[in-house]
Design a protein that fits this description.
The complex is a heterodimer.
Chain A: H1 2-18, E1 28-29, E2 32-33, E3 35-36, E4 45-50, H2 55-62, H3 86-105, H4 109-125, H5 137-142, H6 147-167, H7 171-195, H8 201-219, H9 225-242, E5 245-248, E6 252-256, E7 261-265, E8 268-271, H10 274-292
Antiparallel strand pairs in A: 1-2, 3-4, 5-8, 6-7
Helix pairs in contact in A: 2-3, 2-7, 3-4, 3-6, 3-7, 4-6, 7-8, 7-10, 8-9, 9-10
Chain B: H1 2-33, E1 41-42, E2 47-52, E3 56-63, E4 67-75, E5 83-87, E6 93-96, E7 105-110, E8 114-121, E9 135-146
Antiparallel strand pairs in B: 1-9, 2-9, 3-8, 4-7, 4-9, 5-6, 5-8
Classes of the chains: A mainly alpha, B alpha+beta.
């Protein structure tokens, strides 16, 4: 009886102390860094989030140049059978999600439905429950002419996965999805850039900022095996981007009180060489190969 | 034995509350904050945390040229109106909601792609009866559209 009492008290002490650790411990979660001040001084906790452009944003940029849909750029849907580990599944959730966006941007609606099915299948394999409000494939097919519906569905799919994973402290999985999506978006960009005679070179250069944010997220998981495998190539990519110069002329900020829109007007000066473009293209292709194979 | 039972139940309740805090914050974000993004497309990345008075959170985000963005910053009623600012790469404040009746969302358009920072802070209440600090869920959401 005494032993039982002692064990119970010990467990209670552990439980109670874990509820009061806010000012004593530091930890890194997805996209945030907690810098905790001494609890005897002012309680200032700084939490930093790093967001990456969504595949919807990235692929929308592609429609600004004159290029046509190229199905050979997509990761074949039958490759899903090869992906068994949660890391591979998460990375390729991101890849297929970007493929879905690419199909949608080029109005390939039947292909979009095919890729949406694959994304949902991976979501299932990752044990991410489907959102209760999610449209059924059948309903989407019935409304295939509604292009905006597809964008909404893509956005909801990503949002549902991200929030579920973060709620359940599966931040690494959420990060891998972001990595996969960004790399695939870049893969489209570098290929279309080549095809159109460098019409996307400025957009590619401007991914410098997104990559900086992505590196912060990657560094949170430096001891994970999948991240370890990808890190050398990401570091190489980061080194290339470090030499790309982006500067701005003076900034004018105008706030319209009626429309409640603030416009930030400045001109950017981007310097990227052909060699840098080629190196970025080459590195992105290698990273993508690691992810999808 | 009765005392140990009572303490055990209390400890279990306390522990469960902490786990629930994350889920409640997500629930708050989905129900109270996400609707404010409409008609912008949500960027799919949930940025939320339980913050206390005086705490600061930041979101580093790329704004692409010729796209419109909506930033939604909402906080639990418990902590009152939350301050948010948009700062450029040099740390200069471009926008602050304190100049606009503490609105919880604002739209932005950038001519050139750049990295900006959304800084969110929970104001400290003026009166302090004791050393306790109010805390609550704070969310920063981003939506975009194309011109």
């Amino acid at each position: 009886m005494k032993l039982t009492q002692t064990i119970t008290i010990f467990i209670l002490i552990i439980l109670l102390s874990s509820c009061n650790n806010k000012t004593k411990t530091t930890h890194n979660k997805i996209g945030d860094v907690e810098i905790l001040a001494d609890s005897t001084k002012t309680r200032v906790v700084k939490k930093i989030f790093f967001n990456i452009p969504s595949p919807i944003e990235l692929t929308k940029i592609l429609s600004s140049v004159n290029s046509s849909f190229n199905p050979y750029l997509l990761n074949p849907t039958n490759k899903i059978e090869q992906y068994s580990s949660s890391s591979k599944l998460a990375l390729n959730f991101g890849v297929y999600g970007a493929d879905l966006c690419y199909c949608r941007v080029f109005d390939q609606l039947q292909e979009s439905i095919k890729y949406l099915s694959v994304v949902r299948k991976i979501s299932n394999s990752l044990q991410i429950p489907e959102d209760k409000g999610a449209e059924t494939i059948k309903k989407i097919e019935e409304n295939i002419g509604d292009k905006d519906l597809m964008f909404k569905i893509i956005s909801d799919t990503y949002a549902n996965a991200d929030s579920y994973l973060k709620e359940n402290e599966r931040d690494l999985t959420a990060t891998l999805i972001l990595i996969g999506g960004w790399v695939e978006g870049m893969y489209f960009s570098v290929n279309i850039n080549k095809e159109t005679g460098n019409k996307l070179q400025i957009n590619i250069a401007e991914q410098k900022f997104a990559l900086q944010n992505l590196m912060k997220l990657i560094n949170n998981y430096y001891d994970n095996n999948t991240i370890k495998e990808l890190t050398p190539l990401f570091k190489k990519l980061n080194n290339i981007y470090n030499d790309i110069e982006i500067s701005y002329d003076s900034q004018i900020v105008i706030t319209d009180q009626e429309t409640k829109i603030t416009t930030i007007d400045n001109v950017s000066n981007v310097k990227i060489t052909q060699q840098q473009l080629d190196d970025i293209t080459d590195t992105i292709i290698k990273i993508r190969k690691l992810i999808i194979n | 034995m009765k005392t140990i039972k009572k303490i055990s139940i209390f400890a279990i309740i306390l522990f469960s509350m902490q786990i629930n805090a994350t889920a409640q914050c997500s629930s708050f974000t989905k129900n109270e904050c996400m609707p404010k993004l409409s008609p912008y497309i949500y960027n799919g990345q949930m940025n939320n945390a339980v913050l206390s008075e005086g705490d600061i959170a930041e979101l580093m985000l790329v704004f692409y040229g010729n796209q419109n963005y909506r930033i939604v910053v909402c906080g639990d009623k418990n902590i009152g109106d939350v301050n948010f600012k948009l700062k450029n790469n040099n740390g200069k404040t471009i926008f602050t909601n304190t100049d606009h009746n503490m609105v919880d969302h604002w739209d932005f358009n950038v001519k050139s792609t750049q990295q900006l920072t959304v800084e969110v802070s929970v104001p400290q209440s003026s009166s302090k009866d004791n050393d306790s600090y109010k805390s609550g869920c704070v969310s920063i959401l981003v939506g975009f559209s194309q011109k």
